[in-house]
Amino acid sequence: MSSVKIARLTDRGVIRIDGADSEKLLQSLVTNEIEGLKLGDARHAGLLSPQGKILFDFFVVRTETGYLLDVTASKAADLVKRLTMYKLRANVTITDESPSFAVYAVWDDGAAALTGTRTCVHFKDPRHPSMGIRWLMQSPPPPDAQVVELAHIDYDALRVRLGVPEGGKDYEFGDAYPHEADFDLFNGVSFTKGCYVGQEVVARMQNKTVVRKRVVKVSAAAPLSSGAEIHLGEIAIGRIGTVDGRHALAMVRLDRAAEALDKNQRLKAGGTTIDIDPEALARYRASAAARPSATLQS
Predict the structure, then answer these.
(1) Domain that holds residue 42
(2) CB under 8 Å to 199, separation ≥6 — which residues?
(3) CA distance 201 to 250
(4) Where are the beta strands (DSSP E) in 26-101?
């Protein structure tokens, strides 16, 4: 078996949701399909504001007694409060168990075989096949000669390469719609399930709206800096998020970026010329051509 790359994700927390009504509660609230989720399977999902903005993003994994939510650690307490507000008289218990868990990401060819030897909650990252497997562990993984322990930055580099964004890094909680955060591209939203908070806005963006702003991959000739604004002339049209040297994820106004490319104008971030992922621009152009008069965002 080839070596397995594992990274401790120190910025992740874990929430436990148990009780007879736990499935019903989650199904009525989150962006993805929860009903029928099998033991050990997971969904990538979000909890939205009534206006359709992402308040929290997380993974929902089925356990023998209910569900575990793999969530941004700094948002765990707030998510418990929000879910508790919605539960009313439902037979559900919601607890922040972040201090009891460590979250790891495992990738490369040997990940599945290694996971089969461990007794912990683990699931395939549902966003992209190459994102590997996540472990939610209540004790450290045992030493293994085939395990290569990596830093969090190595995991972030993997996300940058695959174009997979994360909340709080590549988009702001409370400020981005699911489409802008690429939930539609990375299995974070169901367009066929029943009602959930913010669904009407999400459905309208899917069916009638040109999504002009998204998290996309960008590259440059020199190293990029997280937080740097992307400019077209004097106008800011985006911001750099997660960085891996000369490559990064960035929230960008794709209509402005496409317009700049058509006029042979260059985008810059921190004085460095940048290029937008051509596949993202092609998807935007196709969407704009299909819905030339439909808009939602300012």
Answers:
(1) 4-162
(2) 31
(3) 23
(4) 42-48, 54-62, 66-72, 93-96
Q: What is the CATH number of the domain that holds 91?
A: 3.30.1360.120
Q: Which residues pair with 250 in a beta bridge?
A: 216, 240
Same domain, 151 and 246: no
Answer yes or no: are the C-beta atoms of 94 and 69 closer than 8 Å: no
For residue 258, give the CATH number of its domain: 2.40.30
What would the two tokens of residue 65 be? 């007694």
**In angstroms, how far is the first alpha carbon of the chain from the final one?**
52
Q: What are phi and psi of 273, to 5 degrees?
A: -70, 135
Tell me if residue 275 falls in helix, strand or coil. Answer: strand
pTM of the predicted structure, to 2 decimals: 0.91
User: Is residue 117 scored above 70 in pLDDT?
Assistant: no
Contact call for residues 252 and 235 (beta carbons, < 8 A): no
Among the ranges given (37-41, 55-59, 248-252), the one the predictor scored with the smallest mean pLDDT: 37-41
DSSP H or E run through 18? strand 12-18
